[in-house]
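=== RUN LOG ===
request id: a7f3
mode: sequence -> structure
chains: 1
length: 161
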Amino acid sequence: MHAISKNLRILAGAPLAAAALIALTAGTASAAIPINTPMSGKATYYNDAGYGACGTQINASNQMLVAVSHTWWTSANPNNDPLCQGISVKVSYQGKTVTVPVRDKCPSCDAGHLDLSQPAFAQLAPLGQGVINGLTWQFVKAGLNGRTVELSEPVTGSTIG
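=== RESULT ===
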């Protein structure tokens, strides 16, 4: 009977140990963001208003911002996700480039699909186009005033927020 009781205690402790392991490894999520790595894909636009995934008020009809694929988010609470800590997306299409802060999550987008705010999309193509195919983009760290900084350069002052 003592062996059964001991085994039950071990089994009961396993979920707690697993939860602790997840909590301890959650801090390494920023390594999953491939900063300055060129990618290709497509973009659509949206015009939602309210709270974005980073926990701040957004209005995609008049603010420069981007919602990135759910596949890039690594924290259970998106407000605390590394994507919300001064990460922007630099998007290029047919000689035009725009850099916009990550402020929202796109649940229906695959990893290469960006959902730009209306004004960000309009800087790259007419809204009537609806979808931009064949663009290139990359995650970048952004400093004060949205200036792109190299990964090795420290970000001083307040970041996008």
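=== NOTES ===
DSSP finds two helices and nine strands in the chain.
The first strand starts at residue 39 and ends at 46.
=== END ===
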